[in-house]
Amino acid sequence: MIHHSVISLARVEIPAPRVCMKNLAWPIKPLVRLAQKAQKAQKALWCATALACVFLQPLQAQPGSEQYSVTGAGLLVATSIYPLALIANDILAGHGNAVALIAAGDSPHHTTLSPSARLKAARADLLLWVGQDFEVTLGKLFREDPRTVTVSLLSDIRLYELDRGGLIEAHDDQAHAEPHSIDLHLWLSTTNAEIIAQAISRAASNLDPSNAPHYRASLARFTEQQAQNREAFEAEFASLKRTKSDSQDSGLQDTPPYAVYHDAYRYFESEFGLSHRVALLVDPERAPSIRELSEVRASLASAQPQCLLTEPDSDAGLIATAMKGLAQETTLRRVEVDILGRKIDEGQEGYTRLMRAVVADFVECLE
Fold this sequence. Notes:
Elements: H1 2-10, H2 18-55, E1 75-79, H3 82-92, E2 96-100, H4 115-123, E3 126-129, H5 139-142, E4 148-150, E5 160-163, E6 166-169, E7 182-183, H6 190-207, H7 212-238, E8 242-243, E9 253-254, E10 259-262, H8 266-272, E11 278-281, H9 290-303, E12 307-310, H10 316-323, E13 333-336, H11 350-366
Parallel strand pairs: 1-2, 1-3, 3-4, 10-11, 10-12, 12-13
Antiparallel strand pairs: 5-6, 5-7, 8-9
């Protein structure tokens, strides 16, 4: 009641004689300051209430698909990146919802989660991330949490090390690998996606035993779908391959030469028999040195790629520097590949739609 009286007094705008205002100035000023503080406190309370209403309501699945029309029921899965959420939703298939914590357009290597993302992580039944060397800034959130599944540490996952000499199959024990030497774009292999889906199905079955048959059935569908994807994608790329003309490699098949902005496609290329000729960046964590840029320019001049695969967050300045003065500077086609699925809607077969989009971008580049 005191606060209401003070606020009312602070808002009085009735003109008063100057002599009266002068006499009342000393008691009114402190009361006005107190009223202002009370108003701020009321605003803060209102904001906190509004935020609670927004963030504490049940997570909703993407509308438009009956299979994913879960509202307030089922498991809640929080993943670091969107491709993992797409795989998880294919396995949950209506008995819950998976959301990505890293906002679309943010780099998984350098990101700060919003308060709403942290609330989603706190409410989740299961957490999924690639690993410490990929989501570099999220270690404290994921690493020590018993709800976490680290997909790069799954026993059957296929890992590769990045090396100037080519692709090297990593040891089962990542501890022997040099820091940041593992290529962690592992979801670009449909075989790895199956292994991730298996881990999600197991975890979901343990958390929700009554629906374990549902998760196993979803896994079976997902596995069959990836087998079909591999067959279809291989057929698409086979039509683009040509016979090598040099005598040493006579009869072998090859695709037209292409370059990539970021050496992020090793899993995809290995699965479908592709190989880029030049990568402008090997390590996205640092800018290339002058010597490395010189080597890239020499490789571009030698390989004469017909296309450069870029990404939504590619550095246009770096590309211009690498291409400056080369014959292909103005003629090299550029095709943007969205490996994080920024343009992929939630819903059924989300991971398949992501991979189809990546395949389409590669085909556009190689045609």
